[in-house]
Amino acid sequence: MGDLIVVEGLDGAGKRTLSAGLVETWRESGRKVATLAFPRYGQSIHADLGAEALRGQHGDTASSIEAMALLWALDRRDAADELRKLLADNDIVLLDRYVASNAAYTAARHNQGATGPAVEWIRHLEFERFGLPVPDLQVLLRVPVALAAERARNRAATEADRDRDAYERDTGLQHRTGEVYDELAQQQWMSPWEVAGPQTSPRQLAVDISNLLHDGEGVTR
């Protein structure tokens, strides 16, 4: 059974770039690595409905915090069998976003912290009721909100299908979500967490993660 590793962070944090560097390093070392990104736009009806709602469709769906959280959670539930197969067939499965993303954004929309009822509801829903695999390690890519917003704007300007949605345009929400992410990492929510920054070397981080999972001890940077 492979290790389940998750990269989390704000919209525009650079998760895709960091993930690509991690995968390249692990594959160079002979590890068999698979990747999956949530939400699974273009593959999941729930993910597509959520994306459409955040761009003004489907009436007042986007205004319901729980309705949006359920759409993201159902996307992962539908991918559970695929995820378990990937874990059975690979040494590492790297996810771009997972359950902690839903917990952070849902709590932030409710103006709650990581110890509030929203995070507990997401934990119970996705890990207990839906039975999703628990991560072996989660990486928080922590970047300033202004930098993440700038990257999201640049991405929207250069990629026709990546226009910013309501969450990405809400600076206050991004600040609150970042705070909840910090709390989740500090609490080591559901697994060990590592914190990376804009200058973190993906190659060194890949080595640190491998050592952490192998030794069972944290590393300090």
Strand order of the largest sheet: 2-3-1-4-5
Radius of gyration: 17 Å
The helix fraction, in percent, is 40-55%
Q: What is the helix tally?
A: 10
Strand content: 5-15%
Q: What top-tier CATH class fits best?
A: Alpha Beta
* Superfamily (CATH H level) name: P-loop containing nucleotide triphosphate hydrolases
Main structural class:
alpha/beta
Distance between the termini: 28 Å
Order of helices and strands: EHEHHHEHHEHHHEH
Shape estimate: globular
* CATH domain fold name: Rossmann fold
Number of strands: 5
CATH-level-2 architecture: 3-Layer(aba) Sandwich
Mean pLDDT: 91
In terms of quaternary structure, the protein is single chain
Main sheet: strands, sense, barrel: 5 strands, parallel
List low-pLDDT spans.
216-221
How many structurally independent domains?
1
Region (Disordered): 152-173
GO molecular function: ATP binding; dTMP kinase activity
Domain Thymidylate kinase-like: 7-190
Organism: Rhodococcus rhodochrous
Secondary-structure map:
Blueprint: E1 3-8, H1 15-28, E2 33-37, H2 45-53, H3 65-78, H4 80-89, E3 92-96, H5 99-109, H6 117-129, E4 137-141, H7 145-158, H8 166-169, H9 171-187, E5 193-196, H10 202-215
Parallel strand pairs: 1-3, 1-4, 2-3, 4-5
Helix pairs in contact: 1-10, 2-3, 3-5, 5-6, 5-9
Task: Provide an overview of this structure.
There is one protein chain. The chain is of the alpha/beta class. The chain contains 10 helices and 5 strands. It has one domain: P-loop containing nucleotide triphosphate hydrolases (Rossmann fold, 3-Layer(aba) Sandwich). It has a 5-stranded parallel beta sheet with strand order 2-3-1-4-5, with helices on both faces. Helix 2 packs antiparallel against helix 3 and helix 5 (about 100-110) crosses helix 9. One of its GO terms (molecular function) is ATP binding. It comes from Rhodococcus rhodochrous. Keywords: ATP-binding, Kinase, Nucleotide biosynthesis, Nucleotide-binding, Transferase. This is Thymidylate kinase.
